[in-house]
Amino acid sequence: MLIINIKGLVGVHPKEKISLRGNEMANLPVLENAWLLLEDGLIKDFGLMSEIPSSILHLPSSINAKGKFVFPSWCDSHTHIVFAAPREEEFVMKIEGKTYEDIAAAGGGILNSAKKLEQATEDELFKRASLRLADMIKQGTGAVEIKSGYGLTVESELKMLRVIRRLKEAFPIPIKATLLAAHAYPLAYKENHKGYINLIIAQLLPLVAKENLADYIDVFCEKGFFSIAETDEILSAAAKYGLKPKIHANQLSISGGVQIGVKHNAISVDHLEETDNEVLSTLAHNETIATLLPSCSFYLDIPFANARGLINNSAKVAIATDYNPGSTPSGNMNFVVSLACIKLKMLPEEAINAATLNGAAAMELSNQMGSIAIGKKANLFITRAMPSLAFLPYSFGQSQIETVILNGEIYNG
Ligand SMILES: N=CN[C@@H](CCC(=O)O)C(=O)O
Ligand SMILES: [Zn+2]
Fold it and tell me: For N-formimidoyl-L-glutamate, which residues are the binding ones (predicted)?
């Protein structure tokens, strides 16, 4: 497939650039008036229209992208899209003034999702998650991470991870699976935290490893959920099975999750709605990526993460949706990019880099995804005609995506 007359070919980073930190994030190389050649599912070559070789120009099937931009697909590195049912009743409770913590304490929240998930079959969960994932792909997502964490029993956590495995087989995009059994204490272990942690470590982890069901380990390190010591214990046990951490940290309070994540060489520490100077200095010049989830802040009406502080301290920042039934019932990366600009005060270039190359890095996929480079996967999207790059986040809530291309082919869902 050949795409010609591209107004802006976005994210033409040198191939060896596999993540961006601090000031580098404002640099989003765009090739103006370009062509792009895709072959065997990969990016074969690209260049300026003024220099296009005539052998390429005469290829039979080409897309004319006059006035349009071509982006590398969004890389959504934090989602919980395997769930049994939405929780719109909690949406109404929130409008009436209840907080996320109030709802969780009243048996809602994660435990509510776990109850519903226990009753759903693997097939039902697969069908429901497939619909969500197909919607996300139409909105430009071309790689995704998906967590367990609504099982909270050995059987149901395995059921969730098997659903993710089926999604990996069924969808034409890279998918990473994360074990998040430490998402909440199930009712049966409310007074026996040790017992639940032992169940994760002694029973669940060996089974997950045996079936090779997870790529990463996650813990909700938060007041009222998992403490620093408990997080430490789970991450140490998971390391023995080669599972690297991507953890939930500082969503509702300064939890110590960032420091414990960094201690365990986490791929990413996610959320960070609560950030103090210690968090900033911990992540400064660090390899661990700060993954910010602005649509969670928007939906829960909680503080937005300190993206500027992180960028000024030379941290690596990614953005993701956090799509889940409780805190973020949306998988729209275009909205996340807009919110990153509007609420995190990220420049469009920074937000787009955070949603592509750094998002890919937060899934260890940036050698094949997240930028336009020869040999990378041909997962990308073509916009409608747009006056400029900034028009995409500016026109929030509206999709500017016209054509989605996965593995070098047009995706029609
Ligand atoms: N905070 C933990 N997990 C999810 C919310 C889960 C839920 O409310 O169902 C999150 O990332 O926001
Ligand atoms: Zn989450």
Answer: 150, 324, 326
Number of domains in the chain: 2
ipTM of the complex: 0.96
Output the domain CATH number for residue 48: 2.30.40.10
Task: Say yes or no: 302 and 347 in one domain.
Answer: yes
* pLDDT tens digits along 212-250: 999 999 999 999 899 999 999 999 999 999 999 999 999
Q: Can you give the pLDDT at residue 193?
A: 97
Indicate the pTM of the whole model.
0.97
Residue 256, annotated as binding a ligand: no
Q: Kindly report the protein residue whose alpha carbon is nearest to atom 2 of ligand 1.
A: 220
Residue 193 marked as a ligand binder: no
Same-domain check for residues 66 and 172: no
In a domain, 209, yes or no: yes
Atom in ligand 1 nearest the alpha carbon of residue 109: 8
Collapse the DSSP code of 278 into the 3-class scheme (helix H, G, I; strand E, B; otherwise coil) and give the result: helix
- Which residues, at least 6 apart from 5, have a Cβ–Cβ distance to it below 8 Å? 33, 35, 49, 64, 65, 66
C-beta of residue 65 within 8 angstroms of C-beta of residue 53 = no
Are 127 and 260 within one domain? yes
